[in-house]
Design a protein that fits this description.
Elements lengths: L1 H28 L18 H11 L3 E5 L5 H12 L1 H10 L1 E5 L17 E5 L25 H18 L1
Parallel strand pairs: 1-2
Antiparallel strand pairs: 1-3
Keywords: Signal
Protein name: AGR3 protein
Organism: Campylorhamphus procurvoides
């Protein structure tokens, strides 16, 4: 009986240890939380203020994505955004990136309302580019998964504007 319980205890210990090891391993490779699924290779800033600071400092446009976890349109756009290599690459290299699940105090970021998903660009001179709009006249800064090519064009436009204006 003694042998039996020692064996059972050893097996229990092994099970607990390997579960712990798996949990630790998961922890290590967990995507950085700031990405929230929009792209784990992208360096995300945490706040709008930090985004403005980085945009000015790096002379890159700031891209602000407003979204909510329980919004199906946001989830669909996020999936398309994360899966698009061109967007991911531009976001990594040419933009200061921020995704927000709350509104900022800057009213310029909601010129036509506080809907989600909403994507806006701010240039390095810290001007919100309300002129870079999506396809929908009722929600100027909304994008749907099928609008990804359009979003890519707008990202390129945001980059071109910097070269020509600053």
């Amino acid at each position: 009986i003694m042998l039996h319980s020692t064996l059972a205890l050893s097996l229990l210990l092994i099970a607990v240890t390997s579960n712990l090891a798996m949990a630790i391993k998961k922890e290590k490779q967990a995507p950085q939380t700031l990405s929230r699924g929009w792209g784990d290779e992208i360096t995300w800033v945490q706040t709008y203020e930090e985004g403005l600071y980085q945009a000015k400092k790096s002379n890159k446009p700031l891209m602000v994505i407003h979204h909510l976890e329980d919004c199906q349109y946001c989830q669909a756009l996020k999936k398309a955004f994360a899966e698009n290599e061109e967007i991911q690459e531009m976001a990594q290299n040419n933009f200061v990136m921020l995704n927000l699940m709350h509104e900022t105090t800057d009213k310029n970021l909601s010129p036509d309302g506080q809907y989600v998903p909403r994507i806006m660009f701010v240039d390095p001179s810290l001007t919100v580019r309300a002129d870079i709009t999506g396809r929908y006249s009722n929600r100027l800064y909304a994008y749907e998964p099928q609008d990804i090519p359009f979003l890519i064009e707008n990202m390129k436009k945001a980059l071109r504007l910097i070269q020509t204006e600053l």
